[in-house]
Amino acid sequence: MGQMRKRHSATFKAKVALEAARQQEMVSELAKEHQVHPVQISQCKRQLLDGIEALFEPGSASRRPNPDKLQAELYEKIGRLQMELAWVKKTRLLAERHRHFKQPDLVSWSCLPPSVRSLGEPRLGLTARRPAPPRSGPT
């Protein structure tokens, strides 16, 4: 069976990327020393060099969200979603109860003779009537 895939922490990747950026040792030597593939070291180094400018841009610290503010917003959203869910459940329950009392009794409907059943099922608030025959004669 193969080896388990290793997951390296961000601090380990930063350490290896800094050593590769210093260029004091070759990438293959660093790979042997830290027991990682040379491509991984190159990727970490490239990621480090691509993102280093963002550290020195003005306002970079203000772009990071305040964890307390973020937590408060998330709790507020959770509360709102819980209220909405409770409302939906309540509305659904009321609708089911309403439907339960408004539906005709299907058992008694099936017990009717076929001649009556051919008229169609009764609708809520409507009575089943046959249309009046057309009148013949002078108007």
Please give a structural write-up:
- By secondary structure, the protein is mostly helical.
- Among the domains are: 8-57; 65-107.
- The protein contains seven helices and no strands.
- It has helices spanning 10-22, 27-34, 38-51, 60-63, 67-102, 106-110, 114-117.
- Helix 1 packs across helix 3 (38-51).
- The longest helix is centred in the middle third of the chain and has 36 residues, at 67-102.
- The radius of gyration is 37 Å and the shape is elongated.
- The termini are far apart.
- The model has no long low-confidence stretch (mean pLDDT 79).
Distance between the termini: 97 Å
Look at the helices and sheets and give the structural class.
mainly alpha
Shape: elongated
Radius of gyration: 37 Å
Total DSSP helices: 7
- Range of strand content: under 5%
What integer is the average pLDDT? Answer: 79
Tally of strands: 0
What share of residues is helical?
Answer: 55-70%
H/E series: HHHHHHH
Largest sheet: none
Uncertain segments: none
